[in-house]
Amino acid sequence: MTSPTIQALGITQEGDPTRWRATGYVEGIGWLEAWGTSLIGAMEALQKLAAQRVTEQAEEKSGC
Fold it and tell me: How many folded domains does the chain comprise?
């Protein structure tokens, strides 16, 4: 399985310097949002969530 492509990526700091929000659109999944304690942490959390959702969707289609 290939890793999901995140389009329209947005990362913002929300108040506290350790509160970051990442949003992005994943084709076939839709908009996702994830939080982290750093810019990189938020981005990694979004990538992980996108991969998880793509895997779940593939499992649903295959009937597992």
Answer: 1
Read off the pLDDT band of 1 (50, 70, 90): low
Strand partners, 30: 26
- Structural domain boundaries, residue 12: 6-57
Query: What is the pTM (predicted TM-score) of this model?
Result: 0.86
**C-alpha to C-alpha distances, 2 to 14, 50, 55, 57, nearest whole angstrom:** 31, 12, 10, 14
Give the whole-angstrom CA distance, residue 2 versus residue 19. 29
Q: What average pLDDT does range 18-32 have in this prediction?
A: 93
Query: Is residue 63, in this structure, part of any structural domain at all?
Result: no
Is there a domain that residue 47 lies in? yes
Categorise residue 63: left if φ over 0, alpha if ψ from -120 to 50, beta otherwise: left
